[in-house]
Amino acid sequence: MDDNSDERVIADDYSGRGCYWQSNDAILYSDVNSNTVKMALKTGDKSIAVKGLEPVGMSNDGELLLCADKKYIYSVNTDNYTPDLLKKFNPGINRGFVLSPDKRYLIYSKLRAFELFILAETKDLWLYDLNTNKEKLLIKGASLLSGFWIE
Asked: Could you read off the pLDDT of 57-67 as tens digits, one per residue?
């Protein structure tokens, strides 16, 4: 697709959750069946990259994708799209995962409480060390929808 073209590549199966740049030529997104789909931007060609898992984060260099289902988060190398289990999560984890540039840490929000009298969720921001499998509370009462890590 050249810059002068009015053509649009449309992902008619996009779920509205999770969309990440893999490169200047391709994006990864979650389809309506909770699969991670890779779409070539120039041609619109699509293929299921990871079946049954939705993308929830990506490394700054595009080499490592984070995918999740309702209970687990996986790391997925974008060379072969094979998921490796990272961590089991309890329900209430927000989908805003941010991976550090060195791929050692993961920041995410975790549901702490649901306050019925104000109909609001209380979330805390956590840091998870992928090497030691330990998590640490960073900020109480904070939520992460998306973001990026600055070195």
From this structure: 888 888 888 88
